[in-house]
Amino acid sequence: MTSHVVDVPEDPSPAKLREPSHGAPGSSGGPARRIPVLPVVVAVLAGLVLLAIPETARAGYYQYSFITASALAIAGLGFYLVYQVGGVTFAQAGFMAIGAYTSGLLSRELGWNVFLTALVAIAVTVVLGAVIGVLITRARSEFHFILVTFAFSEVVRLSLTRWVYGADGIPGIPSPELFGYSFRDPTRYYWLAAVVLLLCAALVWRLMHSGLGRMLLSVREGELHLAPSFGIRPETYKVLAFAVASGLAGLAGAVQAHFTNFASPDQFGLQFSVLILTAAVIGGVGYIAGPIVGALVLISLERYLSAYPGTSIVAYGVVLVVVMLLLPEGLVGLVGRIAGLRRFLPGRPSRKVEQP
């Protein structure tokens, strides 16, 4: 009988999966883990840039760009999660619209605190994402998965246009306020958006470096041969990743709506779906930092494209194709190869075994 070679983990048990792939300092599981200096330096420099932006002559423009990029990056982090289980989703724009409308309507019509309405938006999109995830994980192919997620975003946009305030959208969405401290000022909202983005990135990083994150990678890398043998149901983890990604998109929608004090269906159409995908690919869809870097690059590029109305989606498409052909790992991957940065993904030891 013909045999073939497959990769399997050294120990697929849950206990093993919960352990870090590198030995902890002082443990017998491996050498002490050294803290890479360059990423720390980059993080410090990024912090200094954030501190310097409010002091620049064009502070208002840079703050607006960063807040917009933050909302895009948070949605992009959700795209990254779905990608980790082998999927490509266009549903992030639809869930952003749901989050923006949920938080905006509750704060405007019922007078609820914005921080509470943002939590409600997250809860609504997580639950809805889980329900939609159960349905779309039954898609027969990757193409059908993409098609269904794209159709979902369009259904959401058209439904909001027809039944919720029409194409004009919702004006007068209030700015956040906490204990009498208002975030209406752009500088204050700038720091709020930075904190929210940092917390979301930290959440995704912690998730992917946990036992659950290793399970997600197992689904992507070997579900056909390995997952059923280890008692792993790939559909369950795909639904979980899709639900968390939906919640991140809902939060991103709330962040954007309460900054612009406005939300409309046209903000979350086809162009925005392409924008999220392009940001993730440009930055590096296999890296947690990828959507963040990509969002900052795209929002910066949008400044120049604004002089040529109607060309944005074409330009994004061209950039997407060029990056996929020349930089398949994105800008973060390029910097990683040049500077020796380590991937922001958990590794798995593997060995070769014969499988009949």
Structure description:
- The chain has helices at 14-17, 37-52, 59-84, 92-109, 114-136, 142-163, 186-208, 211-222, 234-260, 270-283, 289-305, 312-326, 330-339; strands at residues 4-9, 170-171, 177-178, 181-182, 262-263, 350-355.
- It has a domain at 59-267.
- Helix 3 runs antiparallel to helix 9, helix 10 (270-283) crosses helix 11 (289-305) and helix 10 runs parallel beside helix 12.
- By secondary structure, it is mainly alpha-helical.
- The N and C termini lie close together (7 Å).
- The strands form three sheets. Strands 1-6 form a two-stranded antiparallel sheet. A two-stranded antiparallel ribbon has the order 2-5.
- The protein contains 13 helices and six strands.
- Strand 3 and strand 4 form a beta hairpin.
Q: How many distinct beta strands?
A: 6
Structural class by sheet pairing and helices: mainly alpha
**Rg, alpha carbons:** 21 Å
Unreliable runs: 1-41, 342-356
How far apart are the first and last residues' alpha carbons, in Å? 7 Å
Helix content: 55-70%
The fraction of residues in strands falls at 5-15%
Morphology:
globular
Largest sheet: 2 strands, antiparallel
Adjacency order of strands in the biggest sheet: 1-6
Write down the overall mean pLDDT.
Answer: 79
Q: Tell me the series of helices and strands, N- to C-terminal.
A: EHHHHHHEEEHHHEHHHHE
The number of helical elements comes to 13
What's this model, at a glance?
This protein has helices spanning 14-17, 37-52, 59-84, 92-109, 114-136, 142-163, 186-208, 211-222, 234-260, 270-283, 289-305, 312-326, 330-339, and strands at 4-9, 170-171, 177-178, 181-182, 262-263, 350-355.
